[in-house]
Each structure stands twice: as structure tokens, then as C-alpha cells.
Amino acid sequence: MILGHFIHFIGIYAPGSLVEMNTGEVGIVIETNNDEGIKPKILLILGSDKQEKNERVVDLKKGDITFTNTVYGIKKSLSSGAYGIKIENYLDSIHSKL
Fold it and tell me: DSSP E strands: which ranges in 1-98?
């Protein structure tokens, strides 16, 4: 029960977490969703080829879709620093997207 409340208020994916999407793209969680803790907003920063791409925000709560009409989802959490990503390099982008 306590875990359920924690997930409800904090979410499974905390802001600043790195995640790999079902598309292979990599992003940073920038905002949690109190209604559905497993559907945060994510700043996509790497393409499926793991190379830098034009940043864009996807909102899993809204059911944002890919260019091929697939609904975005999180495939897995990544460890801090995965693919050489330094969160601090994206702080300005994150704050401007909130």
C-alpha cells in the first residue's frame, strides 16, 4: 500500500532518469504524471541509432505517437551516464520544455 502511494505521487520514472523507448530512441524524464506514474513526459535526445537528434518532448499520458503511428512507450530504464549522456548538458533544454 505504501509503495502504491509512493508510485502515485513520485512515479516509477523520476525526473532526470534516462530511458530507452520502444522505438529505440533515448530520452530523459522531465516531468512525472501524478495520475499515471508510468506515463511521464520525456525529452528525446538520441535517435534509435543512439546518435544525437533534434530534441523533442513526448507525453506518454497523451499517448503521443511516432512518425510510424506507434504509441510511444518506455522499454527500459538506463543507468546514469548510459551512451555517454550527461544530464547536466541538457538542463537548459529541460527547463525550457517544462
Answer: 18-21, 26-31, 41-46, 52-59, 74-78
Q: Which three cell numbers stand for residue 81?
A: 551516464
Per-residue pLDDT of the chain (98 residues; tens, 9 = 90+): 565 555 555 557 888 999 999 999 999 999 987 666 678 999 999 999 999 999 999 999 998 888 888 899 999 999 999 999 998 888 877 778 76
C-alpha 73/C-alpha 76 separation (Å) is 9
What element of type H or E holds 7? helix 2-10
Residue in this structure with the C-alpha cell 502515485, named with its chain if needed: 8
**93 backbone φψ class: left, alpha, beta (φ>0; ψ -120 to 50):** alpha
Domain boundaries, the chain: 2-97
How far is 66 from 58, CA to CA, in rounded Å? 9
Q: Going by DSSP bridges, is the β-strand pair 18-21/41-46 parallel, antiparallel, or unpaired? A: unpaired
